[in-house]
Amino acid sequence: MLSEDLTQLPRADVIILGELHDSPIHHLNQATAVAAIAPRALVFEMLSPGQVQGLTELDWMDVETLGAALGWADSGWPDFEMYWPIFEAAPDVPLYGAALPRALVRGSVAKGPAESFAEAGGDPARYGLDQPLPEDQQAEREAMQMEAHCDALPAEMLGGMVGAQRLRDAAFADTVLQALEAHGPPVVLITGNGHARTDWGVPWYLNRAAPEVTVYALGQFESAPEEAPPFDGWLVTAPTERDDPCAAFR
């Protein structure tokens, strides 16, 4: 379904709002949706649990104070002012950080998602991380990883990269379920389009771990997909001017 009115998204226990990380338009759209949804909790791919500790007494209406408290400038994510409208749309809502430690994610490339998820305190079997992907999906996802990295990755790394993506998807789903249990629905997850996919992203892991939880996933694109994309709803926005992402690999 092509979504146009972000103030009238379908009701669900969990609403996943996808994005291209460097698109200001996508973040403004997310802010519009968050304001209309009035979630009980906000979960961010971009934040870790440690970053959101101690924010309950912070003045959320001050972009500089919140950005500094989160240590956003050192996080590697695009400028905080792009994300600020999302926080501003729900200033009194509990925040959850879903990001795993970077060292753990890097280590999972060699160890695999099941062992790394267990190290993080999770149950790999609950999210199917103890099982391999179907061969066709594994091959498709490895090809996507190669393309996303400008065909510059060694082929032997691709399987581990897909495993790291599975690890992160499961971790995001686990954090969403924690927020849902603590605060009730609806819970909103802010994340990249790849994690918002219904076929193998966070919605898939939520359905496996808690099939009774209803989920709506929105994707945002800068050009019309050739086929219906794997989202419950999606929209196309104006493109963002950006440098060639493959220039660094040449």
Order of helix and strand elements from N to C terminus: EHEHHHEHHHHEHHEE
Q: Which strand order spans the largest sheet, edge to edge or round the barrel? A: 3-2-4-1-5-6
Summed up, the helix count is 10
Radius of gyration: 18 Å
Which segments are poorly predicted (pLDDT under 50) over 5 or more consecutive residues? Answer: none
Report the helical percentage: 40-55%
Given the helix and strand composition, which structural class is it?
alpha/beta
Query: Span from first to last CA?
Result: 39 Å
Strand tally, please? Answer: 6
The share of residues in extended strands comes to 5-15%
Integer average pLDDT: 93
Shape: globular
Main pleated sheet: 6 strands, parallel
What are the key terms here?
6-stranded parallel β-sheet; 10 helices; 250 residues; single chain; alpha/beta
List the helices and strands and how they pair.
Elements: E1 14-17, H1 24-37, E2 41-44, H2 49-52, H3 63-70, H4 80-89, E3 95-97, H5 102-111, H6 113-119, H7 135-148, H8 158-183, E4 187-190, H9 193-196, H10 202-209, E5 215-221, E6 233-236
Parallel strand pairs: 1-4, 1-5, 2-3, 2-4, 5-6
Helix pairs in contact: 1-4, 5-6, 5-8, 6-8, 7-8, 8-10
Q: What is shown here, in short?
A:
By secondary structure, the chain is of the alpha/beta class. The chain has helices spanning 24-37, 49-52, 63-70, 80-89, 102-111, 113-119, 135-148, 158-183, 193-196, 202-209; strands spanning 14-17, 41-44, 95-97, 187-190, 215-221, 233-236.
